[in-house]
Amino acid sequence: MNILITGATGFLGSTLAAHLTSLNHKLYILTRSPEKRSNTSHLTFMDYNTTANALPKIDAVINLAGESLFGYWKKKKKAAILTSRLRVTKYLVQLIKDMKEKPGVFISGSAVGYYGMSEDFIYTEATTQPGNDYLASVTRQWEAEAGQAEKLGIRTIYARFGVLLGNNGGAFPLMSLPVKLYAGGHINDGEQWLSWIHVKDAVKLITFCLENHSIKGPVNVTAPTPKRNKDFMKKAAQIYGRPYWLHIPAVFFYLTLGEMAHLLTKGQYAYPQKVLEHGFAYDFPSLELALLDLKDN
Prior knowledge:
The protein has ten helices and 15 strands. It is of the alpha/beta class. Helix 2 (about 75-100) links the parallel strand 4 (about 60-65) and strand 5 (about 105-110). It is globular and about 60 Å long.
């Protein structure tokens, strides 16, 4: 397939791009600095001024671009998180509109933050009511913008990502650092849910959605076994052979990260009902398997 993709130079995107090229797909990667990249037989780098006429027939569009969530959430940072996602998604939808031959599928990134925060509820793709916090508002608007492609008759998937576990990016290097430094323990009361997924499974799941024409709408990109923070950190300490003894108060994170601390001190149980019903098989369905793989690689 010819696949147009954004965010392919980031943590998840670069891993996904490597996997898709290994399957002999041809990728057209939109990036802000294409001149810094070298084109190959499977990779063509283009900028965000690219028009539909400059592209070959595109079979699929994958949108993973957006300002990183990491950083102190002041007004400027929060505005960048939202506007970067809406701007790129709107641009891609317009590209699709301008294409004479439409792609078969549009996979647009989102987050389990759509559901809001809860220690009690289990959220599946059948949950239609979004949360009422900032990140829920961002994902709701982001998905609404991507939904314009659905109105064009394009099979549209809203990939609601949980916390990606990998050694080369995302949250895990920061999460595991206290454990490795013999300062492991739970955050706040440790009761907050963490809907996680190994990055290799995330790539496999996105590829599964790309190829399975019966999947559309919201998809929880999470493992089937979310963990409470206290259980996640305890398992990490066990796998790395470190003590589990420290309690880190929530106030520490609010002082250092601002509102972003919600991502660490609160959470949600997001269950991947849709892909399981379609027969998706995880390589790392349990946290122990995921952490053992990360420890060994």
